[in-house]
Amino acid sequence: MAKRTKKLPDLQAIPLLKLEPLYIGIDIGKVRHLAGFVSTTLLERYQRFEACPALAFENSREGFRALAERIRSYAP
After folding, report:
1. How far apart, in whole angstroms, are the C-alpha atoms of residue 7 and residue 30?
2. Which residue, among 68, 35, 38, 70, has the nearest Cα to 54 in the 3D structure?
3. Is 34 helix (H, G, I), strand (E, B) or coil?
4. What is the largest CA-CA distance in the chain?
5. What was the pLDDT predicted at 5?
6. I need a surface site. Which of 28, 30, 49, 64 has the fewest CB within 10 A?
7. What does the pLDDT look like over 29-59, one tens digit per residue?
């Protein structure tokens, strides 16, 4: 059987307005955490709350840095 490859859309970062709030929800675990990001711009782009971006990150300095970088990419 041939593998079906799903073509992913060409996604580009959407800069947020400087005064637009970015809401972040974080589910805390012992080893890994999960952060979800929601804003007006993100909801317009993804059309549904469930489709908005999320980030799984480790409970470490590197994981926290990844979270901080992701936040900076959405809200300068």
Report:
1. 35
2. 35
3. strand
4. 51
5. 59
6. 30
7. 999 999 999 988 888 888 998 889 999 999 9
Closest CA to 57 of 76, 37, 38, 29: 29
H-state helical runs in the chain: 40-46, 61-74
What are the b/e assignments for 42-58, b being 16+ CB within 10 Å?
Answer: beeeeeeeeebeebebe
Look up residue 47 and give its two tokens.
């059309």
User: If 0-12 CB within 10 Å is exposed, 13-18 middle and 19+ buried, where does residue 31 land?
Assistant: exposed
Residue 50 DSSP SS3: helix
The letter for the amino acid at 44 is E
Q: Which two tokens stand for residue 7?
A: 């073509």
Q: Give the helix/strand (H/E) hosting 54.
A: strand 54-58
